[in-house]
Amino acid sequence: MTLSHSPEEDAQKIVSRHIKLLHRYNEAKDAAQIIIGKLAVQKKTTIRQIHEDYGLTDDD
Q1: How far apart are CA 53 and CA 50, in angstroms?
Q2: Residue 4 lies in a domain
Q3: 55 in a domain, yes or no?
Q4: Which domain, by its residues, includes 45?
Q5: What GO cellular component is one of the record's annotations (predicted)?
């Protein structure tokens, strides 16, 4: 028995998965920025300097 799916159902699944992955990515990025901020405070420097020290770009 073969189950057929409409293109709309398949597209909706793809979009839903993409949104979930973006949400997880944003949570991880936010957590990393919090850690970088705390590191900057501990080292008494700026977040920008921490980014430079670790070779991070604005896109990271």
Answers
A1: 5
A2: no
A3: yes
A4: 22-60
A5: Swi5-Swi2 complex
